[in-house]
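2024-03-11 09:14:02 INFO worker-7 job=invfold-0412 stage=load source=structure_tokens
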């Protein structure tokens, strides 16, 4: 993260004696990225964060296996048809992925167990409902439209308040604001479509008593369940530039032009070999001869996966795309508005229509996406041929 935060109690200097009321020492834990040459935070625990008393392997699920997108084809997955179940960790239905990133969908009411992803950051988009995110850094409340960015290695759990649906992006690395939005010292620049004031972070420590507490851990070698001697939520204070945060898609400020602008103006985050974009309600292109709708395009270096989160998709009318749909347009395929959509939008503008109200989250990957079992189970087989009607 680009700016420093301090929560709870910390000593005046780093790595000096910091004692509990009973005279014992608090235990430091330095969470650091890129071999401690990038962002980090220093957490102070009441108990040793190294004290584990048991470890057991967890068998991987067959539902995590990816298959190539062959024959090469645009795809439409209807997440509305996926069954609810599990929790916000174990209930994820894998839609698509590659070695850099995996995208899933989940619908659940159940709280998750404690979880640590040691393979990379996660970005969880809350499509509906409300959830409490608890972690060693504290608590975040999240609801519809929130991105929750979880740094690698953060022990956390999700506690829904009723039914929650979410689109989950799991990276094999770190998810950050795009570099072009930041100064060389990490401050958001004036041209950025959001800034520090839009980010919500934990405000106070979360301490929970408990012994022999299991934590599900994902590593490059697979899944392990570690049992900690004491509850990991025992941090009395932390400071640094690495922590979970929430950002609501409605706080993204769309960049508007007189003629249609390409997807980079919608970029919200970047990860290893992928970007995340937010398509938000905005004024339509206002040049008097504008075609206020995406042109046919072929992103020759990227696969494009789009989660349709809300609003009206006039450019996709007749395709079957609706709220909750996922479209996948691979790099070998030219795509754009459905037949008849261009003239329909131009006519709507003539009649006084001035805004688009679409809401969508897009992930562009720079390596091909393979297909997940959950996506294939709810695929619309007719989607590829909707441009030929």
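2024-03-11 09:14:09 INFO worker-7 stage=emit residues=389
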């Amino acid at each position: 993260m680009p700016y420093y935060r301090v929560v709870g109690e910390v000593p005046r200097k780093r790595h000096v004696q910091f004692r509990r009321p009973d005279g014992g020492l608090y235990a430091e834990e330095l969470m650091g990225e890129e071999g401690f040459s990038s962002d980090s935070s220093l957490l102070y625990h009441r108990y040793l964060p190294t004290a584990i008393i048991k470890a057991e392997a967890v068998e991987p699920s067959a539902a995590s296996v990816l298959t190539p997108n062959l024959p090469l084809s645009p795809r439409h997955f209807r997440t509305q048809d996926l069954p609810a179940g599990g929790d916000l960790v174990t209930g994820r239905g894998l839609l698509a992925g590659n070695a850099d990133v995996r995208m899933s969908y989940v619908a659940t009411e159940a709280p998750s167990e404690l979880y640590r992803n040691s393979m990379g950051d996660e970005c969880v988009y809350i499509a509906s409902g409300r959830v409490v995110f608890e972690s060693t850094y504290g608590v975040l409340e999240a609801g519809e439209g929130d991105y929750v960015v979880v740094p690698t290695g953060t022990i956390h759990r999700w506690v829904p308040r009723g039914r929650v649906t979410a689109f989950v992006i799991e990276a094999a690395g770190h998810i950050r604001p795009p570099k072009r939005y930041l100064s060389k010292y990490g401050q958001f620049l004036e041209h950025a479509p959001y800034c520090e004031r839009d980010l919500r972070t934990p405000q106070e420590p979360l301490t929970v008593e408990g012994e022999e507490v299991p934590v599900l851990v994902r590593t490059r070698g697979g899944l392990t369940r570690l049992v900690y001697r004491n509850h990991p939520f025992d941090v009395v204070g932390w400071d640094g530039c690495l922590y979970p945060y929430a950002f609501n898609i409605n706080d993204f400020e769309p960049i508007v032009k007189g003629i249609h602008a390409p997807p980079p103006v919608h970029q919200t985050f970047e990860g290893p070999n992928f970007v995340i974009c937010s398509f938000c309600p905005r004024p339509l292109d206002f040049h008097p001869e504008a075609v206020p709708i995406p042109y046919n395009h072929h992103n020759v270096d990227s696969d494009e996966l789009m989660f349709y989160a809300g609003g009206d998709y006039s450019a996709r009318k007749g395709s079957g795309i609706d709220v909750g749909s996922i479209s996948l347009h691979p790099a070998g395929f030219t795509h754009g508005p459905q037949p008849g959509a261009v003239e329909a939008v131009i006519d709507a503008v003539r009649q006084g229509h001035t805004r688009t109200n679409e809401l969508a989250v897009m992930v562009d990957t720079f390596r091909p996406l393979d297909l997940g079992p959950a996506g294939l189970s709810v695929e619309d087989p007719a989607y590829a041929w909707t441009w030929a009607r």
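2024-03-11 09:14:09 INFO worker-7 stage=report msg="The chain has two helices and 27 strands."
2024-03-11 09:14:10 INFO worker-7 job finished
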